[in-house]
Structures are given as structure tokens and as C-alpha cells.
């Protein structure tokens, strides 16, 4: 399905399975909350539009994007979710910190996906 649409304008609501019986974990970074907050709200709203119940949407905050991997792993270990959405934002500055955080987070989420049975959706926004 991921390769079916390359343009979100082509998004077809009816092509997404009903989420009524699915359990979702959302791990969201507190850093850059002015960006991650609305992304969290949008994720919850979209899940609900597809039938997800409030009781089946668990939200966990982590301090920053680098901790998204840890938070996602903990959510998976809880056994309470069928999928995890990791939401974070990293803003480029004048130091290599941006590169380290982005690379570490990307590798961590990729490793969770490669080694586990629970998908972790990568929602790291970079500027």
C-alpha cells in the first residue's frame, strides 16, 4: 500500500482498513511541541476517522526525537498495541547535533521494524 500513493492528494479514505479492532501506540516528542502537538492531534483524528476507539489509542511522550526509539520499544514490549506511530521534529542548527539525532532516530526505528512483528511508523519531521 505504501507504494500505491506517492501524492497525498490521491489519498482514498475507503482504501484504508477499518481500525475499530486495532490498538495504536503513539510516541511523541515533547521537544518542538509547536510542531509535534498538531501532528499528534492529526494522527489521533485520522485514526478515529478510520474507526479507532479512544481506549485503543495510547499516547506516550518522550523528551526529544532521539528517545522515540526507546519509547516505541517500550510501547511494543507492553503488548498493548498492534502498531506504533513515532512523531518527532528536529530543527537544523549550526552544530552536527542535527545529523546525530536524525541518524540515530532513523536507525533505531528501522531496527525496531527489521527485528520486530509490530510496525513502527516513522514520523520524524526535519527542517
TrEMBL record:
Enzyme Commission number(s): 2.5.1.78
Root EC class: transferase
Pathways involved: Cofactor biosynthesis; riboflavin biosynthesis; riboflavin from 2-hydroxy-3-oxobutyl phosphate and 5-amino-6-(D-ribitylamino)uracil: step 1/2
Annotated catalysed reactions: (2S)-2-hydroxy-3-oxobutyl phosphate + 5-amino-6-(D-ribitylamino)uracil = 6,7-dimethyl-8-(1-D-ribityl)lumazine + phosphate + 2 H2O + H(+)
Matches recorded under Pfam families: DMRL_synthase
Record keywords: Riboflavin biosynthesis, Transferase
Highest taxon of the lineage: Bacteria
MF-aspect GO terms: 6,7-dimethyl-8-ribityllumazine synthase activity
PANTHER family (alphabetical): 6,7-DIMETHYL-8-RIBITYLLUMAZINE SYNTHASE, 6,7-DIMETHYL-8-RIBITYLLUMAZINE SYNTHASE DMRL SYNTHASE LUMAZINE SYNTHASE
Protein name (database record): 6,7-dimethyl-8-ribityllumazine synthase
Species per Swiss-Prot/TrEMBL record: Phocaeicola dorei
Amino acid at each position: 500500500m505504501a507504494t500505491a500513493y506517492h501524492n497525498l492528494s490521491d489519498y482514498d479514505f475507503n482504501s484504508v482498513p477499518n481500525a475499530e479492532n486495532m490498538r495504536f501506540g503513539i510516541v511523541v516528542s515533547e521537544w518542538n511541541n509547536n510542531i509535534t502537538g498538531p501532528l499528534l492531534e492529526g494522527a489521533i483524528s485520522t485514526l478515529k476517522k478510520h474507526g479507532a476507539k479512544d481506549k485503543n489509542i495510547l499516547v506516550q511522550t518522550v523528551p526529544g526525537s532521539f528517545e522515540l526509539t526507546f519509547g516505541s520499544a517500550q510501547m511494543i514490549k507492553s503488548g498493548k498495541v498492534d502498531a506504533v506511530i513515532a512523531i518527532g521534529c528536529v530543527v537544523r542548527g549550526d552544530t552536527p547535533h542535527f545529523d546525530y539525532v536524525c541518524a540515530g532516530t532513523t536507525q533505531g526505528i528501522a531496527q525496531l521494524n527489521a527485528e520486530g512483528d509490530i510496525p513502527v511508523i516513522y514520523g520524524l519531521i526535519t527542517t
